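$ run holo --ligand "magnesium ion" --emit tokens
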Amino acid sequence: MATLEIRDLHVSVDVENGTKEILKGVDLTVKQGETHAIMGPNGSGKSTLAYSIAGHPKYTITSGTVTLDGEDVLEMSVDERARAGMFLAMQYPVEVPGVSVSNFLRTSATALRGEAPKLRTWVKEVKSAMEQLQMDPTFAERNVNEGFSGGEKKRHEILQMELMKPKIAILDETDSGLDVDALRQVSDGVNRVRGTGEVGTLLITHYTRILRYIKPDFVHVFSAGRIVESGGPELADQLEAEGYEKYTKGGAAA
Ligand SMILES: Nc1ncnc2c1ncn2[C@@H]1O[C@H](COP(=O)(O)OP(=O)(O)O)[C@@H](O)[C@H]1O
Ligand SMILES: [Mg+2]
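-- output --
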């Protein structure tokens, strides 16, 4: 079983007059088959964690390690990260003008598998994944993220996740901007992939809403650039009832 290990991760960004440390020692282990929720107030550094693992050039790792089965993820190119089995869905996905969803998915699958998937089985695979997400077939011909609604962006992410079959998936604010129906379809998709037992999921979210549909095995509270508390699903219920105040007032609780 694949294991993602984050050890004492410190990350800074360049700001006008120097650098600012955003992540201040993150420790986390995610194993294939497990679902972890990272919850925390806005600005606590959750997206920074996702971007740092994805290799976004804006974020400088000043110390610490991220490994997948002992292999240094931070040394890998973005393509190598994908080939190693990492899937990263960002809070603000980019447009890819002139590239259709269908071509994008096939190119990604080719890069991942080392050879182009057989057209006949591939078309079937895509069609059935799209049907399960209740996506209109014409969606495949649209350009990636161009004019996509919030719900379409998120569905497209989950479609990618279903087709790419990653070992570790990091989903940042997958619930944001979704109405109840879209939230359910997206959650069903995540649960289908989870049901295979082959993916370790890091679900990053500000709101507890999505955790009614996707039940995490572990919940971590993120505050001021670190994990300040970890527990089981009951921790999410506690956060829903009490909010984050306890963690943000007068410094973070250990
Ligand atoms: N590229 C950046 N440049 C400057 N500041 C940043 C950048 N990215 C994040 N930050 C700052 O780091 C902090 C954490 O942001 P973020 O990781 O987006 O938090 P969250 O996802 O938990 O809301 C915020 O104060 C934010 O303004
Ligand atoms: Mg964020």
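-- notes --
Helices lie at 46-54, 78-83, 101-113, 119-132, 150-164, 180-195, 234-242, 245-248.
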